[in-house]
Amino acid sequence: MSEGATKKEEKPRKFQAIRGTRDILPPETTLWNRVEQTAREVFGTFGFGEIGLPIFEQTELFARAVGGETDIVSKEMYSFSDPPEDIADYVVRLVQEKGQEAFKRFAAQNATEFRKEVTERRVVQFVSLRPEATASVCRAYVEHGMHALPQPVKLYYMGPMFRRERPQKGRYRQFYQIGAEVLGGPDAPAIDAEVIEMVMTYFAKLELQGVELNINSIGDKNCRPKYVELLRAELQRVKGMLGADSQRRIETNPLRVLDSKVESEQPIIERLPRIADHLCKDCATHYAAVKRQLEMRGVIYKENWRLVRGLDYYMRTTFEITAAGLGSQNAVCGGGRYDGLVELLGGPPTKGIGFAIGEDRLILSLQESGKAQRPQGRDVYIAWMGDKAHATAIRAAKDLRAAGFSVELPPIEQKFGKALGQADKLGARYALILGDNEVSEGLWTLKTLADGSQQKLTEPDLLDFLRKL
Ligand code: HAM
């Protein structure tokens, strides 16, 4: 076939990030770093330590902790089977390692062990990308015997989570959380209040706008089941007036009906029995104490009896925080108490409470309310011309960077006019102009880009001048 007859080359395909995932680019990443750094600082002042967790875990962990019937586990997880080593590959590897005769002897002498090994290799593991991290923190608490440490153990984490939800503003399939958990320790409402105080302190430090804290108590295994039955009975009476989703939830999870945003259901929901009137004595006392403790800390809250949360592990205190500029996805933080979860995951009876902040939403809210602070451009742009000046520019860049300044050193020579235009575009504060004259005189020209003023400085004076700013 002649050259000309070959198939016309196809244009290489362009790829796009998968729906619900996105790239976070500079300068926005600066804001992400500031938000994360502030969390580390504030959480540190409350005695929390950072825990690093795997991105994927056994599917069963989330099913047990979050609940097999929840939307998160039943519809939204990214799960896959993690295949074991192929049996044939395994046997080939053994034969190669041992030699054929030795392998035969090994297999014969260790028949039972060999069979067991092969069988175990066949057990496929089902794993899921984590939809949240509380389950992992509890798994780690049990796995590392953290109940033996001084209690409570206070941990925080940050990183990506994955839920296959319908993407919209503030809702992604890969999103980021900053979370904290308190595990172990006494049954003290002060722990609930301090965790909430911590997240509110953090938001105040970031100057997050329109912050509103909603709290509730959803009872425990003594009082909640009775309330759920009462609620179910009431919902059955008004079933005909509810939409399809709520009708289905009467059976699966009547509490979730309280979450409904459907307009026509609102007056009906308002008349339903409220859990606060059906808490057992212990839960009622606990809830009252949490509120008192919040007041002692000057934390302003709103009680919201309809706040039930979408994960199964909660009991007693639940809370959610909303912020400005987020539209319908305005919950920037959710959390609550989950005594019993560690036990459910094979550990000793352990109390637990925590929260997770939606970092994407936090960033969005800060940006919308103008609290994002414009990130700084470069401190100094070095405009150089000529070989001698290039050598000086390289040295100047090294010294300025060592002193902590952000420096842009163009890789090729440019006319000064073009270089200054570039410095402007990059948002540089100063342009350091180095031409043959400057180098031979040992006096460098520093131009302040905001007002165009210029001054001549020796090298040591330049560093002094910049340091004093
Ligand atoms: P959650 O309410 O499912 O709780 O999530 C916490 C926060 O993560 C939400 O308030 C929201 O800001 C953010 N978030 C959730 N899903 C998305 C999404 N698809 N896109 C963007 N942001 C999202 C938990 O995850 C619990 N583990 C919190 C907790 C910790 N409870 C006790 N300890």
Can you give a write-up of this model?
Helix content is 41%, strand content 18%. The protein has helices at 28-45, 59-66, 71-75, 87-98, 100-109, 111-122, 134-143, 189-205, 224-237, 244-252, 266-270, 281-296, 341-344, 359-368, 387-402, 416-425, 436-441, 459-467; strands at residues 49-50, 56-58, 79-82, 125-129, 153-162, 174-183, 212-217, 302-303, 315-322, 331-337, 352-358, 380-384, 407-408, 430-434, 444-448, 454-457. The protein has an 8-stranded mixed β-sheet, sandwiched between helices. Strands 13-12-14-15-16 form a 5-stranded mixed β-sheet, sandwiched between helices. The chain has a 3-stranded antiparallel β-sheet with strand order 2-4-3. The protein has 18 helices and 16 strands. Strand 9 and strand 10 (331-337) form a beta hairpin. The protein is α+β, with helices and mostly antiparallel strands. It binds histidyl-adenosine monophosphate. Histidyl-adenosine monophosphate binds at residues 132, 134, 163, 165, 170-172, 175, 177, 179, 181, 311, 331-336, 354-356, 358, 360-361.
Provide key terms for this protein.
18% strand; 5-stranded mixed beta sheet; 16 strands; alpha+beta; globular; binds histidyl-adenosine monophosphate; 469 residues; 8-stranded mixed beta sheet
DSSP strand count? 16
Radius of gyration from the alpha-carbon trace, in angstroms? 30 Å
Residue share in helix: 40-55%
Please report the distance between the alpha carbons of the first and last residues: 71 Å
Unreliable residue stretches? none
Q: Describe the biggest sheet?
A: 8 strands, mixed
Strand content: 15-25%
Structural class: alpha+beta
Query: How many H/I helical runs?
Result: 18
Q: Taking all residues together, what is the mean pLDDT?
A: 93
> For the largest beta sheet, what order do the strands appear in spatially?
1-5-6-11-10-9-7-8
Bound molecules: histidyl-adenosine monophosphate
The shape is globular
